[in-house]
Amino acid sequence: MWGGVVVGSAAVLTIYQPKLTVSNQSLVGHTLDRSETIYVTTEESPDVPEQVVLERHSEITPEMLDQLRAAGRERIVVGEFAWRAWGEWWIFALGAAMMIGGAVCMRLGARREIAAMTSIGDDHEASPISTIAAIRAILERLASELPTLPDDEMRCETVVTRLDQVQQSLVPSFANARNALIGKYGLAGYAGIMDRFASLERQINRAWSSAADRVYFESESCIALALEILPEVEQRLGIPPTSTATGS
Predict the structure, then answer these.
(1) Residue 233, Cα to own-chain centre: how many angstroms?
(2) Positive or negative CA dihedral for 231, 237, 238, 243?
(3) CA-CA to 138 of 20 to 30 Å: which in 42, 111, 189, 224?
(4) Cα dihedral across residues 10, 14, 19, 25: positive or negative
């Protein structure tokens, strides 16, 4: 695409600088936008060239064009866009086609990427639904196992160990699935999902922090709150309320 920008820009620079190889009809009637000083010979003084100054804003005539060509000029600067005299129009068209083609390819590539991400099977470890299922499994296992442990010290250690995986792997995995979530649920749906997921993440972080500080009762409360918020995330993802499987 950027190649098209360069090519098109190079062609645009010549819009007001037509070549003198074009026909007189293409330029006659336009005006010079830059004065030209040339030397011409006449029948009266064929051996002594005379200086001729073509003033800026002068109307271009066939005689003027003949003089400029005889003086070796290849281009002139005109004050108006002379479409018929623009010999590089095809370069501009090529650049425009390259830009359009590049933009289309980029858009199609982005769509393929989103489609590939949203079509990932729910049993894939990186899919948003399987990530939420893994978080649920860890939280439910903690909620059921913690009361059976002999003391708060062991309970806190278990919380820290289990939630480390959630914080370091599962939460980032879900956050990194932004394109897949937007592709499947749209921007509004994505915003709703992330609003509840952020609340879930806060409770998980508080549970871990409390356990690390050996304040078990607070950690236990945060785990319970996380399990209350989790169904709201699942609802926005379209996971059936009673389903804890990774399939959607």
Answers:
(1) 28
(2) negative
(3) 189
(4) positive
Sequence-ordered list of residues with C-beta below 8 angstroms from that of 157, at least 6 positions apart, any chain? 211
Task: Spell 210-239 as b/e; 16+ CB within 10 A means b.
Answer: bbeeeebeebbebbebbbebbebbbebbeb
Q: Are 41 and 50 in contact (CB under 8 A)?
A: yes
Report the run of H or E that residue 36 belongs to, with start and end.
strand 36-40
Model pLDDT for residues 129-176, shown as the tens digit of each residue: 999 999 999 999 999 999 999 999 999 999 999 999 899 999 999 999
Q: Which residues fall within 8 angstroms of residue 154, CB to CB, at 6 or more apart?
A: none
Residue type (1 letter), 142:
L
Q: Check: CB of residue 177 under 8 Å from CB of residue 126.
A: yes
Burial 31-50 (b: 16+ CB within 10 A, else e): ebeeebebeeeeeeeeeeee
**CB-based contact 12:81 (threshold 8 Å):** no
Alpha-carbon dihedral 35, 42, 20, 63, rounded to 10 degrees: 80
Q: What is the pTM of this model?
A: 0.50
